[in-house]
Every structure is written in structure tokens, then in C-alpha cells.
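# nightly structure sweep
# worker-07 picked up a monomer target from the shared queue
# config: single-sequence mode, recycle default, output format = C-alpha cells
# input follows
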Amino acid sequence: MPATTLAYQRFRYVTTFVAILAQWPLAATLFSTGEGSLTRTDYLGLCATVAGLALWLVALRGRAVSLLIILGSFALAAGAYLCMRGTSLNAWLGFCVLLGLLTTASLAFIQPGVAAKITLALTILLIGGMIGETVTGRGWLQHSQSISTGSFTGQIEGPDRQAFAQLLPLSSARARKTKSDGSLDFDVRYHTDAVASRVVPGRPDQGPEIFLFGCSFTFGEGLEDDQTLAARLQSLRSSDRIYNFGIRNAGTSDAWIHLKRKLEAGARPQRCVYLFMDDHFRRTGLPDVTVATQPERPRFILRDSQPVLMGRAGDTFSSPLEAFRVNLARRSHIYRSLASRWVPDERVTDLIAGLGDAMHRECQSHGVKFLFVIFASDGSRFDVPIDRIKTKLEATGVSILDSRPLLNEHMTRTGMTSNQLFFADSHPRPEYARLIASWIDKKLSDETAQPVDAKQ
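# output follows
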């Protein structure tokens, strides 16, 4: 290809623009490295970017131009994805759109034909992706939510060395949520005591202890201290001492960590109660979206039927493909929307059943009784996997209270609706907290009356 041709001159100009464009991913890595240390992914991104730019420059020599341009563009796109992985996906799509236009122009100048048409079509698809990301990110295709605004002031939780979080002793906070119609859903205050349990009014100074573990359903999101299920259970069992160790946004993994830690530290309650609800599948099974948004969650696996802590979810990727999916979930609004339809598989149900059985066995080893409570949620989609967990736990002798049929029977008998039992954000209202406390109380009383050779 003669150096004097107009097409070649245009190709040189376009290559200059490509070289300028390549500075985006290079700068994203070199100037956004946190403490200044490059990771293996950074080096891969830099190498791919430099290799892509080199292929473009080699194409200036006039041999296999179209092939070198296409390979160089793919290398630049891959390098940009790795180098710009800390940005939104739209930033990378924007880079690829500009790169696609430059690639199409170069191919059209040098060798007009099918290759230029293909790269133009790919560029149009990338533009469509940008539009889709923008629309999804701004929520134009989403239905209005029942909760429009919320505020949380104060601090009652802190980071934990293993679990997702821990309650802080002698702390307080105020939570407020408003419905989409402007009406108030709740405005309440939370308090914790000296042992980092949510305050349980009326707890006596002496007596058998009952520890409650779980998430915000157990903690009592939206409820005052005297409205929580722990407070209701305390009023029903005045001779016992109820401790509410529920932590907002916790899961089965967190309950296992905190229960085991307390028993190993010497606590000897009469009973430990774990309250499971369907979102614990996500918090324990850790789908891509959860790891992308909450990488500090603990990741467990089952090894010889024993739960083993692998570390923080964001640091324990099993393969480059998993790391790619999680990164895409963090950056892409479209992928998050699609991945949110996640359904727990048998691996997840086995893991939760294994953690429940581990809690049971840990309690047995310290002479403590254990109860696994299935907390009926508002519109649960996971009845089948919950039933699988229930079957597995019953087979190992774990005591179970399933509130789902009890709640259905109560709603049928009284005519109560979900709006009367759940807040707009799906947390239990005071009436449901009262009900679940009464069912737990009856279960504990029934088991106390059973012979010594019963389940536990």
C-alpha cells in the first residue's frame, strides 16, 4: 500500500486518534491504583492495551492491515475493560463505541467491504447497550417502589472480623421510612445494652437465658424496643432472660459465627434460637449481585458436611469467570437487573442446612438446646428450597418451628391482610412480632414438657 495514497494518510490520522483513545484505560490503571500497587489484573489490562495499540501501529507497515486492526481493537477493548473495571460499564461502552467508529473508519479507508460493515454493526449494538444501561440505571423501566425515602441516624452496628457485622454495646439509632404516597411507615429508635443485645425491656436479673440469632426480622426493624419479638417473648416467659442478638442484614452464616463465638467464649444459655427468613438464601449463597455490592460478607463451603469459612466473599473467587461476573454485576445496571432473579440451587440449600445442623451440634456439645425457626416472609418465592432445608434438618434431629402454616391459618381465621402484618418494606409489624413470639413460646413449652429422650 503506497504511503502516498489518501487512504493511507487517513488511516495514519485515525491511528493517531486510537493512540490518544488508548490513554483512557492506561490512565485509569496508572492513576487509580489506590495505594499505588498494581494487581495482576492491572498488569493484564495494561499488557492487553499496549498490545492492541502495538497491533495498530504495526498495521501502518501495510501488511495484513485489516486483520491487525481487528485484533488490535479487540485487544484494546479487553484491556480497557480490565483497566477501567472500577468505573461504570457505560464508561467502558463509551470507549468501545469510539474505538468501534475509528475501527470502522480505518477498515472503510483501507479495504471497504464486509469487515467494516460488521464493526459498524457491533458499534451500533454498543450504542444500544449504552442506552439500555442509562435507562435501567435511572429506573425508567422499573415499577414504583413502596418505600420512597428512608433515613438512619446513629450507629448500632460495626464491622466484624469474620461476620458481616456485629451489634455495638450501649448504642442507639433512629430509623425512619416513608411510603411512596408520602405517609409515614415507621419512625422508631433502637437501643443496645452492655452485652451488645438489642434492649429487651423487662428482662430479669437472674434466670435461664435464651439467645435469639437472626437478621432484621429478629432484631425488629421498624419496631420500638418493647415491640420486638424478643420483647414479646420476654413478656410471655417472665422467668427467662431473653437476649436479642439479631443483626440487620445478617444471614445464616453470620448467625453460625456469632452463636459459635458466644458458646466458645463461655456463654451457657438454656436455648439458642435461630430465625431463618427467605433472604438468608441470598446472604448465605452469595449470588454475583450480592458479592458485587457486599463483598465483605463471609463465604462458607461445606467440607465433609462441616461448614468451613473461606474468608470475605470479595476475596474468594473460585475462578476468573466468577471474578468477571461479579465485576460485571457491580458495573452493569442491566446485568444486576437480570441477575436479581436468582433462585437458590441445591448447593445453597445444602449449605444452609449444613450451617443449621452445625449450630445444632455446637449447642449439643455445650449442653444447650437449639431451635431452628422458619420465619414466614411477605410473598416468599422460595417455599420449595425452604422445604428441602426443613427435610434435611429434620433428618439430623434439629428441632424446627415452621411459622408458614401458622401464619396462613391465622390470616385465614382472622381475615388479616399482609398490610396489617408487614410494613411496606416487608418487615414484620408489631402484630406479627407478637404472633411469632407466641408460637416460639408454645414450641419451647411443648419441648420442655417432652421426655428427656426427645429430639435433643
